[in-house]
Backbone:
C-alpha cells in the first residue's frame, strides 16, 4: 500500500513536474507581439513624393527590426521604416518585417494612386450630337449657331485617369478676355453641356487636386484647351436662275445653303478641318431671268460671263451649262461653276449642283484660290462629292 | 615582238572603246525606249473609269489634261454600263466626255442611242449629258472621224430635234429659241471643237437658215459668240 501510496505519490510528483515543465516551456516560447503599419492608402499627383509606413511603422518585436518594402511594379526598398517614394503610376507597396529572432510579421500594404494627365488630352464635341466625333485640338466655337441657340459642348479627358476618388480630378472654365472670370467649375473627367456665351478666349482646364497641389500647376497634372469664341459671320446669298433651268424653289436654295454652311462650319477632321463661323443664308426670293444675248443661260465665252454678271443682280446665278471659265473647257470636260476670285457678286453655278459646288464657288468669291494637296479639300479643283476640309486661312477669309 | 605586243594592246584598247560606245548606245536606246514606253502607258481600266467620272469645279490642271489623253479604251464597256444606269446619272455628262479622248466611229451610234432614249422633260443630268455629246462629236471630227461630221451636220437641221422624244423646256421661254433651234445652237458650240477651217461659214449658213426676223438679233449675237468661242478653242491643244 505504502509502496503503492509511495508510487502513487511519485507519479503525482512526476505529473506535477511534467505540467510545470510544459508551462515553463510554453512561457519561454512566447515572443513580443509586432504591430505593422504600411500607412494609409493615398492619392498623389505625378511627381509628388510621399512617405510610406506609419508613425511608427512597427510596434513591438525584438530589435533590430529589418524592413523589406516591395511593390507590384517590381521595386524593392531595403530596410527603411519610412521610405519616400514617387511612383509614376498607381502602385501597391508590400511591407515585410523581420525582427532579431527571425520572426516575420503578417504583411501590410499601402496603395499609392497617381493622378497623371500627361497621357490624356482634352477632347470636345457638341453635346447635342451623341455620335459626333470628339476633337482634340484647340477649338473654335461659333456663337449663335444656325439653330439660333448657343450650342452646348461636352468636354472630356481621354484617356480618363482611372481608380481615383472622384474629387481628385477637377475642372474649371475661364473667360480669359473680359474680366478673366470663372464661368464654371466642377469635379470629374467630363464636363457636360457647357454653353459658351461671350466672344473672345475661353480656357477649359482639368487638373489633379490632392492636398497641397496648386490648381495653377502647369505641369503634367494639368491640361487645358483654349477656345476661340466668335460670332457667326452671316454671308447673305441672293440667287437668280435662268428660266430655262430646272425649277428652283426657295426651299431648294435654303437646303443647299444649309448644307454649304455645314460643310464650312462643321469640323469633319480632327486636324485638317477648321470649324468656321460662317453661315450662308438666302437673301430675298429667287430671281428669274429670261435668257437673252446680254443675259445668257449658258456660259460659253468671257462675254457671256461678263454680260450675265453685269446684267443680273444676284450673288449666285444658276445657268444651264458652263463651258468657259477663264479659259474654254477642253472637249469632254464640263465646269460646275465659275467665279471671279474675290468678287462676291460674280458667282455662277450650273443647275442641279450640290452644296459642294456652291460652297466652293462662294469660297472663290471671298478670295480663296484652289488648294489641291488633298482631294477632300473644299477648294480642290475637282469634285467627287467629298470636299469638306478648309484650313484656318480659308476660314478667316469666309469670316472676314 | 615587243612591237607586236604594243599593237595588240592598242587593238584591245580600241576594241574596248568601241564596246563602250556600243554599250553607251544601247544604254541611251534603253533609256529612250523606257521614256517612250512610259509616255505611251495607258491608264488602267479602273483609273480610266475614275477619271471619266471626274467633274471639275472651274479649272482643269494640265496634269489632268495629260492623264485624260492616256484613258484606256478597254474601259468603254463599263462606261456604257454607267450610261444605262439611272442611279449613276450624275456621272453621265463626264462619262460621255471621256469619249472625246477614247471615242471612235463605232461609239457614235451608241451616243445617238443615248439621245434617242431620252423622253419627256429631261432633267439637268440628262441635259448636260446631251450637250456633252455635241462636244465629243466635235472632238471626233478634229480627229478626222468623218462619221461624226456627218452626224453633226444632221443635227444642225432643226427637224432632227423634232423627231426626238424629249424636250428641255417646261414651257417655251418668251422671246427665246424654240427647243429645236436651241439645240441647233448648242450643236454649233460642240461643233466648234472640230476646229474646222470653214467653221465660220457653217455657223453663218446654219443660223441664216433657222433665224427669222423676230429672233434676228438673238441669232446675230449667237453667231458672234460662237465664233468667239471657236477662236478660243483654236488656241487649245488636244
Residues:
Amino acid at each position: 500500500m505504502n509502496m503503492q501510496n509511495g508510487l502513487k505519490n511519485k507519479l503525482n510528483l512526476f505529473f506535477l513536474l511534467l505540467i510545470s515543465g510544459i508551462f515553463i516551456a510554453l512561457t519561454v516560447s512566447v515572443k513580443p507581439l509586432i504591430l505593422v503599419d504600411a500607412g494609409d492608402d493615398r492619392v498623389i499627383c505625378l511627381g509628388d513624393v510621399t512617405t510610406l509606413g506609419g508613425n511608427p511603422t512597427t510596434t513591438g518585436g525584438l530589435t533590430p527590426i529589418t524592413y523589406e518594402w516591395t511593390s507590384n511594379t517590381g521595386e524593392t526598398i531595403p530596410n527603411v521604416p519610412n521610405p519616400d517614394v514617387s511612383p509614376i503610376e498607381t502602385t501597391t507597396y508590400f511591407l515585410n518585417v523581420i525582427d532579431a529572432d527571425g520572426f516575420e510579421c503578417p504583411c501590410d500594404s499601402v496603395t499609392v494612386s497617381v493622378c497623371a494627365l500627361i497621357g490624356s488630352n482634352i477632347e470636345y464635341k457638341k453635346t447635342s450630337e451623341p455620335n459626333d466625333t470628339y476633337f482634340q485640338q484647340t477649338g473654335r466655337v461659333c456663337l449663335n449657331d444656325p439653330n439660333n441657340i448657343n450650342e452646348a459642348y461636352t468636354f472630356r479627358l481621354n484617356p480618363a485617369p482611372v481608380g481615383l476618388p472622384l474629387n481628385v480630378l477637377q475642372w474649371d472654365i475661364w473667360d480669359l478676355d473680359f474680366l478673366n472670370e470663372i464661368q464654371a467649375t466642377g469635379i470629374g473627367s467630363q464636363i457636360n453641356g457647357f454653353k459658351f456665351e461671350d466672344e473672345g478666349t475661353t480656357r477649359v482646364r482639368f487638373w489633379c487636386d490632392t492636398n497641397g497641389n496648386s490648381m495653377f500647376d502647369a505641369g503634367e497634372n494639368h491640361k487645358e484647351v483654349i477656345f476661340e469664341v466668335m460670332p457667326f459671320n452671316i454671308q447673305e446669298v441672293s440667287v437668280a436662275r435662268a428660266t430655262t433651268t430646272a425649277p428652283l424653289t426657295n426651299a431648294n436654295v435654303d437646303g443647299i445653303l444649309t448644307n454649304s454652311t455645314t460643310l464650312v462650319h462643321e469640323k469633319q477632321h480632327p486636324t485638317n478641318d477648321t470649324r468656321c463661323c460662317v453661315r450662308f443664308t438666302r437673301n430675298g426670293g429667287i430671281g428669274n431671268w429670261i435668257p437673252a444675248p446680254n443675259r445668257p443661260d449658258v456660259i460659253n465665252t468671257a462675254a457671256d460671263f461678263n454680260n450675265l454678271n453685269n446684267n443680273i443682280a444676284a450673288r449666285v446665278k444658276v445657268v444651264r451649262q458652263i463651258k468657259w471659265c477663264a479659259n474654254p473647257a477642253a472637249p469632254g470636260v464640263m465646269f460646275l461653276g465659275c467665279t471671279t476670285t474675290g468678287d462676291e457678286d460674280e458667282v455662277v453655278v450650273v443647275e442641279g449642283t450640290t452644296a459642294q459646288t456652291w460652297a466652293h464657288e462662294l469660297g472663290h468669291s471671298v478670295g480663296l484660290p484652289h488648294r489641291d494637296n488633298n482631294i477632300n479639300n473644299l477648294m480642290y479643283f475637282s469634285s467627287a462629292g467629298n470636299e469638306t476640309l478648309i484650313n484656318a486661312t480659308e476660314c478667316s477669309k469666309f469670316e472676314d | 615582238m615587243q612591237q607586236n605586243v604594243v599593237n595588240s594592246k592598242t587593238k584591245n584598247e580600241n576594241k574596248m572603246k568601241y564596246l563602250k560606245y556600243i554599250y553607251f548606245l544601247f544604254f541611251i536606246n534603253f533609256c529612250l525606249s523606257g521614256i517612250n514606253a512610259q509616255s505611251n502607258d495607258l491608264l488602267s481600266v479602273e483609273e480610266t473609269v475614275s477619271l471619266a467620272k471626274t467633274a471639275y469645279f472651274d479649272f482643269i490642271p494640265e496634269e489632268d489634261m495629260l492623264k485624260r489623253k492616256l484613258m484606256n479604251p478597254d474601259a468603254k464597256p463599263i462606261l456604257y454600263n454607267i450610261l444605262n444606269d439611272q442611279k449613276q446619272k450624275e456621272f453621265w455628262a463626264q462619262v460621255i466626255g471621256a469619249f472625246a479622248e477614247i471615242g471612235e466611229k463605232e461609239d457614235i451610234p451608241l451616243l445617238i442611242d443615248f439621245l434617242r432614249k431620252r423622253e419627256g422633260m429631261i432633267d439637268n443630268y440628262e441635259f448636260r449629258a446631251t450637250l456633252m455629246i455635241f462636244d465629243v462629236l466635235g472632238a471626233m471630227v478634229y480627229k478626222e472621224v468623218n462619221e461624226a461630221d456627218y452626224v453633226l451636220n444632221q443635227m444642225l437641221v432643226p427637224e432632227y430635234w423634232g423627231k426626238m422624244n424629249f424636250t428641255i423646256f417646261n414651257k417655251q421661254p418668251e422671246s427665246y429659241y424654240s427647243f429645236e433651234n436651241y439645240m441647233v445652237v448648242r450643236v454649233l458650240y460642240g461643233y466648234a471643237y472640230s476646229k474646222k477651217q470653214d467653221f465660220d461659214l457653217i455657223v453663218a449658213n446654219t443660223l441664216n437658215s433657222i433665224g427669222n426676223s423676230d429672233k434676228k438679233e438673238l441669232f446675230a449675237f449667237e453667231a458672234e459668240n460662237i465664233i468667239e468661242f471657236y477662236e478660243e478653242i483654236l488656241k487649245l491643244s488636244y
Notes: The two ends of chain A are 129 Å apart (CA to CA).
